[in-house]
Write a structure and sequence with these properties.
Blueprint (H helix, E strand, L loop, with lengths): L1 H50 L3 E4 L63 E8 L2 E8 L11 H12 L4 H11 L6 H15 L5 H14 L4 E6 L2 E7 L9 E4 L2 E5 L10 E4 L24 E8 L6 E7 H8 L6 H5 L5 H15 L4 H14 L2 E2 L2 H4 L16 E2 L1 H15 L4 E6 L2 E6 L10 E4 L2 E6 L21 E4 L6
Parallel strand pairs: 11-12
Antiparallel strand pairs: 1-8, 2-3, 4-5, 5-7, 6-7, 9-10, 13-14, 13-17, 14-16, 15-16
Helix pairs in contact: 1-2, 4-5, 9-11
């Protein structure tokens, strides 16, 4: 009898479990249906909204990137102290820092190789994305042609796109560049290259609308605008962009990101309402870098004030991606996550170099490296415009200037020594200051709240810790904290 009761309770428990599972499945199906109904309703309402007459807007002139009258030649302090330290072994000789680039590509993901089978009513296209060859299956219903760029035609194309099976395509893009804002700019670039591969080169309007649809459905705050018989993509961003004209809609700047030729006073026509779920402004801060694919070359960078040599393999994928990055504020470059390959290579070498050193000596070595391992040239001379570097980019190009060295120095001190650094914004210069545990260190300093930071200038060649350029001593300094935020 006892065993029968046990069996009975087991059967009852199993039945209850099955019943609970069935209820859960019904709940999931119901929620999915509710989401589908909501999506369909949102798409239908937006289709109707796009048919209404668009409003006229005049584009605002592009803001120029902040430019400082930097010195043509980096000032030099006669060297007084040379650290007698052993040369750090070349990265290729040390298995701890020898990172083969080809192993960093996640080749097991399905979109890196052509599909063995293609779903019914789908077609496969190839996309070249910064060294990655990607393959996407796209619903044939997403291929459309515009007869004109008026409201009715745009609304009809949106309706056709919204009735396609577009969700897998968006999810594939997110799986490559990261979800939840990990790399918004990469998502924008991928959808742009996807549109260019899906439509003919002359189908500029179709490309613009197709990309706008993908970005909208992915939740980004974008619009489509008509100007001079063409369609342009408008995009709202968390940070200001420079050298790109914009429309102000509902007190938000929407940048005309794909306008090749920009004319003063040109009129654009668009709408004020956003798509239902498109409320995420594109964030330019990168939290998940692109996967590395290939190295250009391995080069050695030697400090001239101490025997410190660092070997770095430059990544062509990253170089090309950063070259397409829009002009924005300097602080963004300091707060962005670097490539894991670069971090593993560089940080491990620097940690080995400063192992056992006190803070002041370790910071002095890193400071001298940033001062003397790179040749100096201003951005306008090298590029013709202001281009702050991400930390990796100093190893890509032959020259760098004050903000580039400050960004690299701050990155190294924070990640090698785990010390706090602020950028120093002068009217004509960018430098850094470091918070030391030893508050008795002498030299020029700056207070951030009640905390003392010692000035360290990566552009003042051979300057020691606490040495400020004489011509800037009387100028007002604006300390800029470097804050790494979770997105």
């Amino acid at each position: 009898m006892k065993h029968l009761f046990i069996i009975f309770f087991i059967i009852m428990a199993f039945s209850e479990m099955c019943f609970g599972q069935s209820e859960y499945e019904n709940f999931v199906k119901q929620r999915k249906q509710e989401m589908t109904n909501y999506k369909n309703q949102a798409d239908a309402e937006f289709t109707k909204y796009l048919q209404e007459r668009w409003s006229e807007f005049q584009a605002f002139q592009a803001q120029e990137a902040p430019s400082k009258p930097k010195p043509k030649v980096a000032p030099v302090v006669p060297p007084k102290i040379v650290f007698d330290l052993p040369t750090i072994p070349d990265a290729t000789e040390n298995p701890e820092v020898d990172v083969p680039f080809e192993e960093t590509v996640p080749i097991d993901l399905p979109f890196y190789t052509p599909s063995a089978t293609i779903k019914n009513n789908f077609e496969e296209i190839k996309v070249d994305f910064y060294g990655l060859t990607l393959y996407f299956q796209i619903d044939k219903k997403m291929r459309f042609s515009l007869s004109n760029v008026q409201e009715e035609s745009v609304a009809g194309a949106w309706e056709q796109l919204s009735k396609s099976d577009y969700v897998p395509l968006i999810e594939s893009c997110q799986s490559i560049v990261g979800k939840n804002g990990a790399n918004d700019w990469a998502f924008y670039c991928l959808t742009k290259k996807l549109a260019a591969s899906f439509f003919a080169p002359e189908a500029f309007n179709e490309q613009s609308l197709f990309q706008m649809f993908l970005l909208s459905q992915a939740g980004y705050s974008v619009k489509i605008a008509r100007g001079n018989d063409q369609l342009y993509l408008l995009m709202a961003t968390e940070q200001p962009l420079y050298s790109i004209r914009y429309l102000m809609i509902n007190n938000v700047n929407y940048y005309i990101v794909n306008a090749v030729q920009q004319k003063d006073g040109e009129l654009f026509y668009t709408y004020k309402k956003d798509f239902a779920s498109a409320n995420h402004k594109l964030n330019l801060i990168i939290r998940q870098p692109l996967p590395a694919t290939e190295s250009v070359a391995t080069a050695e960078f030697q400090a001239k004030g101490c025997q410190l040599s660092i070997s770095v393999s430059t990544d062509q994928t990253l170089k090309d991606f950063y070259a397409d990055f829009p002009q924005c504020d300097v602080i963004l470059h300091a707060e962005t996550t670097v490539s894991p390959v670069f971090e593993q290579q560089v940080i491990s070498q620097f940690k080995k170099a400063v192992d056992g050193k006190k803070q002041q000596e370790a910071v002095s070595m890193i400071l001298n490296f940033c001062q003397t391992a790179f040749d100096y040239m201003t951005d306008p001379e090298q590029f013709g415009y202001e281009k702050p570097f991400f930390p990796e980019e100093l190893f890509f190009y032959p020259y760098s200037d004050c903000e580039d060295r400050s960004i690299l120095f701050s990155y190294l001190v924070r990640n090698v020594l785990n010390m706090d650094v602020v950028l120093l914004d002068y009217p004509q210069h960018i430098a850094t200051a470091v918070r030391f545990d030893d508050n008795s260190i002498q030299g020029d300093d700056v207070l951030v709240g009640d905390t003392r930071y010692i000035i360290c200038d990566p552009t003042y060649i051979n300057a020691a810790i606490g040495m400020e350029m004489p011509e800037f001593k009387s100028q007002k300094i604006q300390p800029i904290p470097i804050i790494i935020k979770d997105l």
